[in-house]
Amino acid sequence: MPDMNGLELYRKTRENHPHLITFLMTAYAADDLIQQGIAEGVKTVLTKPVDISLFLNLMIAVVTA
């Protein structure tokens, strides 16, 4: 995304959808952004390349919780 990072997108989205469950995906292990995201309510952060099996298991866990 040229104009914002995933955490900034999460913040904008949360303004209109505060209860939306959110996962972030990143190709960069920017610990400060990851920690900020978790502190602000991101469910989890996945690193690229994404482990599809892990992602699907997380989605199932959220849906069945």
Can you walk me through this structure?
The chain is of the alpha+beta class and 65 residues long. It has one domain (6-64). 52% of the residues lie in helices and 12% in strands. The protein is built from three helices and two strands, in the order αβαβα. Strands 1-2 form a two-stranded parallel sheet. Helix 2 links the parallel strand 1 (23-26) and strand 2. The longest helix has 13 residues, at 52-64. The mean pLDDT is 89.
How would you concisely characterize the structure shown here?
52% of the residues lie in helices and 12% in strands. It is α+β, with helices and mostly antiparallel strands. The model has no long low-confidence stretch (mean pLDDT 89).
Helix fraction by DSSP (H/I, runs of at least 4): 40-55%
What strand line-up does the widest sheet have? 1-2
Order of helices and strands: HEHEH
Mean pLDDT: 89
Structure keywords:
alpha+beta, 3 helices, 12% strand, two-stranded parallel sheet, 65 residues
Task: Please write out the topology.
Elements: H1 6-16, E1 23-26, H2 31-40, E2 44-47, H3 52-64
Parallel strand pairs: 1-2
